[in-house]
Design a protein that fits this description.
about 375 residues; mainly alpha; two-stranded antiparallel ribbon; about 0% strand
Length: about 375
């Protein structure tokens, strides 16, 4: 516990101290989100906050991280470093969607060969496919969730906190150290990113957070329970970004729109604002929902097979009900959606709300020009 407190404090202090430096450096290296007619912010906003998160996690992890299984620990850090650097290059100059996808798959394969992989199936090939799919999907889900001030960083912090708590129960030092470091770094960054944000994390931050959370979710083990039950634990902890991505994809498919290429304000956060919430209220509501799914995940770690699947069924039914409800007024208006203004008269709900989404899930179909964060 003492080590965890030191890891948390170190990452928090580093993030609080390096984020202002990133904010000063961003204009000098050209990583800035400039105002446009389609954006709500009226002044340039630095988009280098992800570098501060990355530095905080990396330094603390290297100093106080795992020392007994360096292959797995190193593969996570190397993969996360590559993902973050790729996002940084994309923020500054733009990368082709194919390069971004190949980079994410390569990082997932690195995890697999080091022993960090989904072990839900007997056939190694199925485990490989599941590992790559999980890493790529979660990485891009966090990236797409970065559509409102404080949202992606806060949800990532909540997920990391739940992972860390579970590690305290099961004695997993690797996942615990990474989770605590990620929690501290996110909280330090949120000091500057909560509405109104003075700095954005950019793809270098959101892709990094997504990859680390995906890797720690895979690495979680619960010796006191069976895999037949505990496989749903990381799915529940990361339920909000998964729900958000599923909602956008299904909603657009339902209306005959390309779910990957069409930018829009049809994420959960935008729909909550369309229903009458303020921007901060929408973010806090999603925070509460993330805490709730995390608590359910903690219950599942100790649940019997019957209890675990009852909890999972409740979460699944709530998700299906949420998908149906979010597709109806006041959360969705076909008239406003057709004009691209789901949020109604209040306009965009975040400094980046009207910008095209930049994840591979979008870029594989249409590549946004450099300088537009998602």
């Amino acid at each position: 516990m003492t080590v965890y407190l030191v890891v948390f404090a170190g990452a928090l202090v580093l993030a609080v101290g390096t984020t202002p430096l990133a904010r000063l450096l961003a204009p000098r290296v050209g990583i800035v989100d400039h105002p446009e007619a389609r954006k709500i912010h009226a002044r340039p906003v630095p988009r280098l906050g992800g570098a501060a998160i990355f530095v905080a996690v990396l330094v603390v992890a290297l100093v106080l991280g795992e020392r007994h299984n360096f292959d797995q620990f190193g593969s996570i850090l190397v993969g996360a470093t590559g993902i973050s650097f790729m996002g940084l290059v994309d923020d500054r100059w733009g990368l082709s969607p194919l390069i971004k996808l190949v980079g994410q798959i390569a990082a997932a394969l690195l995890l697999y060969v080091s022993g960090v992989y989904v072990a839900a199936f007997r056939l190694p090939l199925l485990n490989l496919v599941a590992t790559v799919f999980w890493v790529v999907f979660i990485t891009n889900s966090i990236n797409l969730l970065d559509n409102m001030d404080g949202l992606a960083g806060g949800i990532a912090a909540i997920a990391a906190a739940h992972f860390a708590l579970m590690c305290a129960f099961s004695g997993q030092y690797l996942v615990g150290a990474l989770s605590i470091a990620l929690l501290g770094a996110c909280l330090g960054f949120l000091f500057y990113n909560l509405n109104p944000a003075s700095i954005f994390m950019g793809d270098s931050g959101s892709l990094f957070l997504g990859f680390v959370l995906a890797a720690t979710g895979i690495k979680l083990r619960f010796p006191q329970n069976v895999t037949f039950v505990t496989w749903m634990v990381p799915v529940l902890v990361l339920g909000i970004p998964l729900f958000d991505t599923a909602l956008v994809i299904l909603s657009r498919l339902r209306r005959g729109r390309n779910p990957l290429a069409t930018p829009g304000q049809d994420h959960v956060s935008h729909r909550l604002v369309a229903a009458g919430m303020g921007r901060r209220e929408a973010v806090l509501t999603l925070y509460v929902a993330a805490f709730a799914t995390g608590l359910l995940a903690i219950f599942v770690t100790r649940a019997s097979v019957v209890e675990g699947y009852i909890g999972g069924a409740i979460a699944a039914l709530a998700g299906l009900l949420g998908l149906w409800r979010m597709e109806s007024p006041p959360f969705y208006s076909s008239r406003k959606a057709s004009s691209g203004d789901l949020a109604g008269g209040e306009g965009p709900t975040e400094s980046q709300a009207l910008q095209p989404e930049r994840g591979v899930l979008v870029d594989m179909v249409i590549e946004s020009p450099p300088g537009k964060d998602g």
